Amino acid sequence: MFIDAESLDAKSAYKLLIGSVIPRPIAWVSTESTDGIGNLAPISFFTVAGRKPPRISLSIQPRSDGVTLKDSFVNMRDTGEFVTHLATLPQVLPLHISASEFEPDEDEFDAIGLKKLPSLAVKPPRIEGAPIAFECVVDRIVPAPDGLNHMVIGRVVQFYIRDDLYLPNGRIDTGAVAPVGRLAAEYTVVDNAFVPPLDSETLAHFAGRRMRRLDKNDEDYSMIDTSEWSPSGSLMRGHEQ
Predict the structure, then answer these.
(1) pLDDT by residue (tens digit) across 101-139?
(2) What is the CATH number of the domain that holds 90?
(3) What is the chain's alpha carbon radius of gyration, rounded to the nearest angstrom?
(4) Domains contained in the chain, number
(5) Total-model pTM
């Protein structure tokens, strides 16, 4: 099937993108407003954007009403600073809850029950328990033509790596991290690794096989088909747990 991208509205294009570009790493971003109110947001339109200087990119949509800018973006724009954390399985529930649309004057660290840790180079705090964090300053903001969607490119000015994950040769012990990625509107945990080629038995074992669900939902379940899902990427309030 071929689908003409020009014929799609934003919601339809979004569903095709998030169901096709999988798994996506999740940036769990902390910011502070100009009034010092803490904000948290999981952003899965996220990738590395450079190595010298080290940079990352985040693409951020408006809130579920389609017109209000998300607090995380407003804070990045107004303060020029943010912290990106690695999303991992032990913290997946607070990560998920932080996708909810809290009021701008509500400190999300307090609302979710997460402890703030001081950053070294920027004002927004780190999340206690997150094994890896990038303290970032805004390098540039690239707006979409609609003025509501934005790409934020951040320059990493300080790396935090939990001591046991930082190996003597300067690399990360990725096998010990248990990173969580995003599928369409659901999550996946990275729990295996390989280098090609794989033997024919292993390839045959995975041929045509569906993903194994770790929850109790049916194998064809999709959060997109529920009232929890929003095309803004936000978790609708009332569905936090």
Answers:
(1) 999 999 999 999 999 999 999 999 999 999 999 999 999
(2) 2.30.110.10
(3) 19
(4) 1
(5) 0.95
